[in-house]
Amino acid sequence: MSSPVRDGAVRVGAVDCGTNSIRLLVAEGVPGQAGLVDVTREMRIIRLGEGVDATGRIAAGAISRCRTALTDYTTTMKDLGVQAVRMVATSATRDAANKTEFFDMTAEVLGEHFPGAVAEVISGQTEAQLTFAGGVSDLSPADGPFVVTDLGGGSTEIVVGELVRGEVRILGARSLDIGCVRITERTLPSDPPTPAEIAEARSVIAEALAEAGDVPVGRAARWVGVAGTFTTLSALAQGLGEYDPKRIHGSVISLDRMREVCGRLVASTVTERRSLGPMHPGRADVIGGGSIVVQALCDVMAERAGLSELTVSEKDILDGIAMSVLARLDT
How many C-beta neighbours within 10 Å does residue 309 have? Predict the structure, then answer.
């Protein structure tokens, strides 16, 4: 049963379908006013990008897993009184040969309760704006400029920007094909990875990061890491026995500590990672690849921006999507 909506507020739904997971945010806000209040957040590992890097196609099983999760999410949004929804699909769907099959499925499932709704593949600029807006939504504009990094399953977004009188101003952004699933499938077949595999992963990551040389990271005063790899690493760096969003959100971790935690994960087996309290079971087999990406990013932030710590946010592109839905209702 839907809980009551505050006077003057509306409920919006945001769905972010990435390479590794699909996530839902139902939030409540007042059109024309800043700020959203979470009603519910959900996340499922569906591995939509499984094998896409090698085959160029989204696997039938992956589409089926997505359908199941999206059907449940759509029911949840209906039950909670959501008035408008936006679904964004990222890296795995952009170039897949059978992406029409995926988008037809989303239109069918979402359309049952939200006519006309369909997953959309957004431009790199829009993705940068949504990622940045969500990632810094709880931070003071005076602490900027910020460099926000969203490490997903298929890609990593690096966005530099600032908040000026409540408006997002993007100073530079890049989306790089070095997500945790992609790096693991491409370079890390062993469990645990061999030194040669790790070296190959570092080489691939370094080549990708070189493409982001034009992003003005050096202008950033604070580094913000968002999405599941960063939040899990924060929990481990803090020594938490279980995943605790309240202690993770806004946590500040030194880069030395982050490198140490990443190093341990890379050297661990999947079984060892899975035994860690804050670790989602569906993340254990790919977080080693993500950790190698984070180590490389730590070096970039230290060398190019002189930064020595990382702020981890539970808010990310999902929150930016929800904010964009509320803004549309205000027009």
Answer: 16
Give dist(CA 244, CA 161) in Å, integer: 28
**CA 70 – CA 77 distance, rounded (Å):** 10
Contact 135, 313 (CB under 8 A): yes
Backbone angles phi, psi at 213, to 5 degrees: -60, -20
For the entire predicted model, the pTM comes to 0.85
Residue 244 is given by DSSP the state -
pLDDT value for 200 = 97
Give residue 217's pLDDT. Answer: 96
Q: 160-216: per-residue pLDDT in tens? A: 999 888 788 999 999 898 999 899 999 999 999 999 999 999 999 999 999 999 999
State which residues of the chain have pLDDT below 50.
1
The backbone region for 139, taken as left when phi is positive above 0, alpha when psi lies in -120 to 50, beta otherwise, is beta
Distances (CA, A) of 323 to 40, 135, 188, 318: 15, 12, 37, 9
Report the run of H or E that residue 170 belongs to, with start and end: strand 167-176
CA dist 214 and 195 (Å) reads: 31
> Is 195 buried (19+), middle (13-18) or exposed (0-12) by CB count in 10 A?
exposed
HSE, side-chain direction, 13 A CA sphere, residue 163 = 19
Following DSSP, what letter does each residue of 248-293 receive, concatenated? HTTEEEEHHHHHHHHHHHHHS-HHHHHTSTT--GGGTTTHHHHHHH
Say if residues 293 and 187 touch (Cβ distance below 8 Å).
no
Q: What is the largest CA-CA distance in the chain?
A: 60
